[in-house]
């Protein structure tokens, strides 16, 4: 007897499988539509109907992957954060910081600015979403500071105990203020100033302070 070859999951027809695969292929467009609507109308006013229309997808396709608007927005924000940033490794702390700041400037000064504003508004009106964004997306951003500092400590550029939160909090705040509040460009001169005069000295100082405390104890 010849061995039976199963070509589709039990209980699913060929058309069901094809539909499922088409749905998976539409996921990036659906996420993008959700983010654009989030930036344009806010979390409270956006609807799954509007997302489906913008993405040229059926509501059934959307609900097959995401149970609610909340789940869709959180997944879209998380995926966008992962896609838009590739952590550079230049071989030096200074080079890593400058390259990272330049990538941040490109994001904040481009289409991501409206998205970030939409996410911040959504976080204010949807506390549950805010908690999830902080837990997942912001934690992902903290990875950047931790990685830069760990590399620098391993290379001997920073003392053990340097605080990576300094980069995450200070760099983000100053870049947002420069680009969105002042409306000034984050050009090479500014990135060099921020790196050499602010971030590296602060990181080095936190490490020295931690080492002094350990010595005293």
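^ Assign residues to that structure.
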């Amino acid at each position: 007897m010849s061995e039976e070859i199963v070509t589709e999951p039990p209980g699913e027809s060929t058309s069901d499988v094809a539909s499922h695969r088409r749905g998976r292929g539409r996921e990036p467009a659906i996420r993008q539509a959700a983010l654009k609507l989030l930036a344009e109308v806010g979390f409270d006013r956006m609807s799954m109907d509007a997302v489906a229309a913008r993405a040229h997808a059926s509501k059934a396709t959307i609900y097959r992957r995401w149970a609610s608007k909340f789940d869709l927005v959180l997944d879209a924000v998380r995926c966008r954060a992962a896609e838009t940033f590739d952590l550079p490794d230049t071989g030096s702390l200074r080079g890593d910081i400058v390259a990272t700041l330049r990538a941040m400037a490109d994001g904040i000064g481009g289409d991501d600015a409206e998205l970030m504003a939409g996410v911040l508004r959504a976080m204010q009106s949807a506390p549950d979403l805010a908690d999830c964004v902080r837990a997942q997306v912001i934690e992902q951003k903290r990875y950047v500071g931790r990685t830069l500092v760990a590399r620098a400590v391993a290379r001997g550029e920073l003392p053990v105990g340097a605080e990576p939160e300094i980069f995450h909090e200070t760099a983000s705040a100053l870049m947002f203020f420069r680009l969105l509040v002042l409306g000034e460009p984050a050009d090479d001169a500014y990135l060099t100033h921020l790196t050499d005069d602010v971030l590296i000295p602060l990181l080095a100082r936190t490490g020295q302070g931690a080492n002094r405390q350990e010595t005293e104890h």
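The domain at 84-216 is CATH 1.10.357.10 (Tetracycline Repressor; domain 2).
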